[in-house]
Amino acid sequence: MPGKSSIYQELNGIYDKNSIPNRTAFLYNKMKLFLKSAKAEGFSIVNENILCHLVLDYFADIVRLKQFHGITFTNKEKIVAYTSYWLLRRKPIQFTAPRIDDGFVFVNEAFITSYIADEITDIAKKETVPDTLKEHLFYHLKYRLMDAQSFELIIKSYVDGSK
Prior knowledge:
mainly alpha, 2 strands
């Protein structure tokens, strides 16, 4: 609609001009490293258009969250939770091969599990996340409905429980 700005256009006035490109590059690089370690490089891509949209969706959610709750700082748990939610919704990792091994069907969910595990070890200042937590998280990503609040609950519970 001409004359009416969207939340995405307003993001430019709210965030530092490097915030969105930096977040996009951070996630892109993490996904590329994940695909390399999963030996999926030759037949998979990170769809950059989808990745850009999920980053915009993430920032739009955070703006709404800050406005609604009257907060200025977003804690690390919320950042990981909302990023994970949009990764799950948008599924930016896609395959270029006509047929893939069944082990790669849930590659986005596997990436999100890896992303959360990496981030919460940093937040909780722990060496590793228990395999049982990763297995349960992966299962829920594949077969259950997850929203940002569910992710935040899981992350916060692990972080607070490890203190």
